Amino acid sequence: MERIPQSPPKIQPISLNIDRPLWSVMIPVYNCSEFITDALNSILIQDLGENLMQIEVIDDCSTDADVESLVKKVGGERVMYYRQQKNVGSLRNFETCINRAKGKLVHILHGDDRVKSGFYDKISNLFKIHPEAGAAFCRYHFIDENGEIKKEGKYNHNREGLLKDALFVMSAEQPTQYVATVVKREVYEKLGSFYGVVFGEDWEMWVRIAKNYPIAYTPSILADYRRHIGSISYPEKETGQNVIDLGITILNIEKQLPEDMRHIMRDQKLACKKSFIKSANLIWQQISDRKKANQLIKKAISIKTSDRNFYFLLFKFYLKVIFNIKKKNVVHSNYFSKKISPPKL
Length: 345
Known about the structure:
- By secondary structure, the protein is an alpha/beta fold.
- It folds into 2 domains: 23-226, Spore Coat Polysaccharide Biosynthesis Protein SpsA, Chain A (Alpha-Beta Complex), CATH 3.90.550; 241-322, no CATH class.
- It contains 11 helices and 10 strands.
- Strands 1, 2, 3, 4, 5, 6, 7, 8, 9 and 10 form a 10-stranded mixed β-sheet that branches.
- The protein is globular.
């Protein structure tokens, strides 16, 4: 199988003849052992019991620790453990999570994230009040590697219930993350799993769901999304791959929108073009790889939208290259550095 499927992988339906819990909390992990205890404890403290909640860790052949022993130490027999036969990559690991999920509601909680008390009760209630919803999400905090809250997610609408103009909300700027989002398994069965890229694949999924189903929302902040060096979403400074994936994601989302809505992607396209230049500049400053930097610039130009500021930034970048201008001590310290910002989502 391709590590990065080019179309949504199919999700097999659950047999109607088996007893199913309401919840499947599926925890994909890969080399994030220092955070797994935090993630599991955040679930177990609000455990609804085996009849209502499946809890399972899906390990993509981690090499940083004996994850199975760690899971048993924290969760005993309550938390199931499954290890891939070989490393399959994040998208295939998410696909495995969904296929192994038995519950009606699927929560993919990455092993380095965590939920706050009340998450499962609140989301359960949202689906109870709005049974037509295909997915539901809450607001969330960004936290660092030490678990310290750094800021709130940008989406802060204060009305609880079904989103008005859900497709617009999900497309205009990614309002949620895996940790804050729960999807009915039957929705994955209809729409398929994640595909195409390893950075931004969730944004495309939330848009795909919004195009086909109502989405419920609560303004309560009930999840913590951790940014740290080594996570999937951390910028890859030497390749710019995350920015490339972001560009692909934006174009894939734009294709899903009706013609009269595609204008809402303009700001995201402009932000992405500028992120390409920032990444090209970072590659030039750190490793002087002009070829890789030029590849990113070409991709930025290929995104069709106009902005004078973009061409000004482009001009500044090539002046630096031509005159070999470099700053000292340009580093990727962490996501919350004031010197270098990650690609905006």
